[in-house]
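Late entry, evening session. Most of the bench is empty. Finally got around to the prediction I had been postponing all week. Sequence below, unchanged from the version circulated by S.P.
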Amino acid sequence: MTKRSSANGNGRDTPTSARHPTRAKQKTAAVTQIDATFAVASDGTLLVNVSSLEDCHLEGRPLFIGAKLTEAEVQTAAGRIENAARELQGSICGRLLKQQTPKKPE
């Protein structure tokens, strides 16, 4: 694995092809690794960061490769997630209220 000093000071600015041998034939620029230990996918899957592990056997495991969002993208995503969460909350609370409301005798 190639190691160089990086902008974030972690010393692990590793070319994509070094981390992903199947991509070795593609011409890629160096990327900066994020040191987050875990990530949670939108489907609830918990992902472990294996980018700094050497000789890690991942055959047969699905991989998620992501990129850090810009601040503008984060703001857009956060707004949409908040709207979706409020809609879901309203739906669930509405059902709960409907279940708890006694039926009027006819």
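Two things to note before I forget:
Residues 37 and 49 are 5 Å apart (CA to CA).
Confidence is low (pLDDT under 50) at residues 1-17.
Will write this up properly tomorrow.
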